[in-house]
Amino acid sequence: MSIGTTIKKLRRERNITQEQLAEYLGVSANSVSQWECDKTAPDISHLPILAGIFEVSADILLEIDIVKSKKQAEIKRFTEENALLHSKGKTDERLKLCREMQKKYPNDETVMFYLMRALQNGYAKENFDEIIMLGETLLSSQNAEYKLGAIRALCFSWKENGDEGNALRYAKMLPEYDDLLVHILKGEELTEHCQKFFYNICDKMYVELSYLLDRKDAPYTAKEKYQMRKSLYNIFHIIFSDGDFGYWEDRLGRLCFFMACDSMELGENEQALVELEKMLSHFEKAQSFDKIRHTSPLVNTLTVSKEDCKKHSEETLAHQYYRYINNKQNLFAAISKDPRFVSVLESLSKL
Q: Of the candidates 226, 220, 213, 224, which has an alpha carbon nearest to the alpha carbon of residue 263?
């Protein structure tokens, strides 16, 4: 409740008209109306007089606003700390933070949203019921981000629980994507909006291609898979024509790893070694990534820092793919003794 709402409530309880209150304070009736509509607020010098008229303390007049402001400040700090922990892959600390805030503000949508996301990240199976409850609650949110996040959480949770019928039901709730903002925004806002599309479409294509190719029944040969991944690799280079990949060094390295796997299936050992060396180079750049102001024409208004990027664990990308390669010893057997392959593995283990 705002101070304007409090004034309106107290005025009505005491059967005082806006005109009478205005006369007591030496202001216009319109000023009182503006306060009560929360369009403006009374000057601090009016508070003692208002308190006297309503026979309450000035603290009472301000209390609701103070409590609301305190909560807003706490929620803001919470979202900032949550984002920082997420960017560092600190999943346990992130969940602990959300649980602490849940105790203070169990019905706050922001707290529920970030708790739901934290539970999805490594704790989904044992917290299935809670994720469903949080998701169902957030479906009625007026915040578009929270509502869409809830739909995604519900869809993936039901899928992981083996209920594809419910998963499909929620998947169909997502609206068709139609970018209306390009028709409305102007100037720098339009430029930034369009450039963010080019920036994000790369990751969108990476995710879609992964689902397309990584399933067991994918109807593609190793040669076709290699060509498709190579096409996406080249698209990254078209959009980031200056080589200013920044965080997307991560995705390029992953693509190179899978192109190396495709190459081994094709018996193209030299090609596989080249792809693994490129993978290492991309991962080294990803590891040292901190912040970048993009220069390529399609994205040259965008600045991205590592704090903007999310991690699902504290394990480094290099160590993750070091494990992947070791788990595919049979696939890489033909080049396992090659000094270049050994060098790549050794470098990954140290990153």
A: 226
